[in-house]
Design goal:
Layout: H1 3-30, H2 37-55, H3 64-89, H4 96-116, H5 120-142, H6 150-176, H7 189-241, E1 245-250, E2 253-257, H8 259-264, H9 287-300, E3 307-312, E4 318-330, E5 333-342, H10 344-375, E6 380-385, E7 390-393, H11 395-401, H12 405-408, H13 423-434, E8 439-446, E9 452-463, E10 469-478, H14 480-536, H15 544-573, E11 582-584, H16 586-596, H17 598-604, E12 607-610, E13 617-621, H18 623-640, E14 651-659, E15 681-687, H19 695-699, H20 708-711, H21 718-729, E16 733-738, E17 744-756, H22 775-794
Parallel strand pairs: 12-14
Antiparallel strand pairs: 1-2, 1-5, 3-4, 4-5, 6-7, 6-10, 8-9, 9-10, 11-13, 13-17, 14-15, 15-17, 16-17
Length: 800
Amino acid sequence: MNLDLRTLVFNQAVGYALCAGMMALFWLQNRHRLAGIGFWVADFAMQGIALLVFALRSPGPIPTELSIMAGNALIIGGTILFCAGLERFFEQRSHPARKIAFLVIFLAIHAYFTFDKSDLTARNINTAVAILVIFLQCIWVTNNQKAKYSFIAKWLTVVFAGYCVVSIVRIISNIILLPQGDFLAEQGPVDIFTNMGYQVLVFASTFLIFLMINQRLFLENAEQQHALQESENRYRQLVELSPEAVVVHQDGDIIFVNSSAVKMLKAVTPEDLLGRPALEFVHPEQRALAAQRVADTLANHEPAPLLEEKLICLDGSVIDVEVTTSRLEYHERVALQTIGRDITRRKRIESQLQEYQQQLEAQNLELRKLTRAIEQSASTIVMTNTQGTIEYVNPAFTRITGYTAEEALGQNPRILKSGFHGPELYHDLWTTIRRGDTWQGEIINRKKDGSLYYEAATISPVKDRNGRVTHFIAVKDDITARKQAEEALRKSEEALRQYAEQLAAQNAELDAFAHTVAHDLKNPIGLIIGYTDLLKDETMPLSDVQHRSALQVIAQTGKKLNTIIEELMLLSGLRKQTVTIGPVAMPDVIHEAQQRLLDQINQHQATLFIQNETPWPQALGYAPWIEEVWANYLSNALKYGGQPEKGLPPRVEIGWNWDQPKAQSEIQPDASASHAQDGALIRFWVRDNGQGLSEEAQARLFVPFTRLDQVRIQGHGLGLSIVQRIIERLGGQVGVESVPGEGSTFYFVLPAAVAPMNTCSATKTPPPQQPGKSRCERLSTIRGIISGMARCTTAGYHRM
């Protein structure tokens, strides 16, 4: 080894030492701000030590093998620390175990080719591969950094790529060419190129690292200055927008005011106040005290306590303010900041409150006089607030109602509510008094012991001086004795009135009955008379076919007359007839009604479907009447079911389902319903596939004793009136659900019996015509009705 090469190594070691020293200074000053610098300090130190170890090899004090091993280990270790510092600087941390494992593997291989099997080629390749791997990772780090370091990182990437190229050249040269020497040994041209290349790249990367550190410091300082400026701007904005007046004065003169201070002191712009002495705005009576407070604040460095003082505004007006003063640094000089709040309005209110207090004391004296008069009154006096809470009752209230004052206070007057009045009375009462008017009337109330009593009440609102209602006061007198006499008289009058109304209703029903007879029987009887006269006329002989046709018309018309008469008799007898209500086996009743309509079913080629998925429950009713209901519903479904224009025959469905309980007022059977379950109702229904009914048509169904042309909506005749009368007598309801074009569902609702019916064998009931009458008796009745119809016709009833 010649002197020039050793000198070069020492110079490089000194250069590394200087870089390490400068980097150490950066680290000491900015170790909390710049991550990774400590790794770079260690890298430079290790690189310098490695060069010294190489320089001191044999014939120096360090053996050759140990120098080679230690030097290469320090170089690779320092390079690994350099990469780790780069990752921390760019905040791209990786697990250190990988780097430690890599270093261990390198040292093991290098030691093997140094001590056990000395091989120069293997050592050179091992070192070059380690450097190549490390700087490939450095390239990956610089390519994944933030945009603000893109320029320097780009050049660092170029330098790291140069490391990789030099390492590759060294690997290739050691594979293809025989090694010409080791570091600091006799070297060939390629070794000299690679060693010099490494040194140039080291200084280039060091220069770029220093540049990058300075850029980071510069950017962070700029960001801190920007953040500081933003903070100052926010503070200034908060002060400007503060509702409190803020004044900063220095050496006695005002140097800053916010908008609230300008407004409070009646100025137009801040310039009207700036430069003026601060004590100029303090009331002359308080200036000495204010000056002493300013001096104490400057001397003690403590904020002055909150106190009240008077200020003089620019327009000469005097205001009351609440102020506090504290010391601060303003443009690097001591100043005072005074914060104030205008309390002029509050002081005025406090003064007014004192006046009100005096007035209240005088009013209280008058109230005490009125209170004594109220307590001695014989009338009940109750006072409530606007929500109706009782706040006062006089002794007469306790004497009449039985409630003590302690029991009544805090309660609502509804504790006296008897339940005899509807919500309309109370709505009118509250509407009147809340409007500010006086309400007068009579109320039935209930005492504490449950007995009822009558009161003549006068309830008035109590208003304040602004006309606002604050309380209600009721003055009431007990008029029970007078009302009892009036009630007895009213009941007598009511009984007479109800009797008169009943007579009028019965007369109206009789007129409607006669009207229906006249309209429904006149045409069929006329038809029978006409065909009978035709058969009797000997001048117009008829063939056998014509003869039979006439007789068939007469027979069919007679059946129609018989049906109408039976319906009318049943309808008229429903009001007067008394029956016993009990459980009804509904399937048997439906069977009886179906048997009555067999001819009609066959005539229309109808199909009947009866729900049988679950056993039919028993309902409370009267079987003969319910059979009539089913017969009417089924007859209507057969007549108006189906769609003949489309060739669809009637399709009739019969079923049931549980219904929601109705209000108690809607279910009031005439007979006893002791067999019914509590609130359980059953809906029975008949559904057809006809044209359906409009809403207007549905509203006109089930109307009893109206004109016939109104009852028969689309042919639904007197039978629906019978259905409604029967079901109402049995404590149920009737109804229809229909949509035009989708058919109709007619239903009736009855109370349920004790339990659903599993098997039943109800006794066959007689037809619901005239129980106990023979055919001869019914024919006699028919003749009587026809005779009566003739009389009605002559009396002025005509078919419409």
